[in-house]
Amino acid sequence: MKKIIPYLLTTILAGFGLLTLFLSTSVIFDLFGIRAKEGNYVLFVVWSNFISSILYLFAAYGFIKNKKWTTSLLGISTLILITAFVGLKIHASSGGIYETKTIGAMIFRISVTLVFAIIAYFTITKKKL
User: What whole-number distance in Å separates Cα of residue 58 and Cα of residue 48?
Assistant: First the structure.
């Protein structure tokens, strides 16, 4: 049972990372017509998602290899996303155009990343202290 949990976490995080990587690169490079489907996207939010997707993939590897730096990667990703969210709020309050679904998506992404960072801390980092 103890072996199943790291593999499950790795699978979920890698899947989340790959989906995020696909969607963010599709918007950035206008692949598959996704940019038009996204509507009024905010480019710095898309870039923060792209950077986070790379960090998710490395963190997935860290989960499977039980590496202490996994927590740091997920913490950095959380900070990047929170910074982008604050930027989005400033962008919105100054009259910039955006999709309202972006706010919910950012809250969800920050929450998921934070949960994975907490899990990494308690399952890897704290055990190695």
Answer: 16
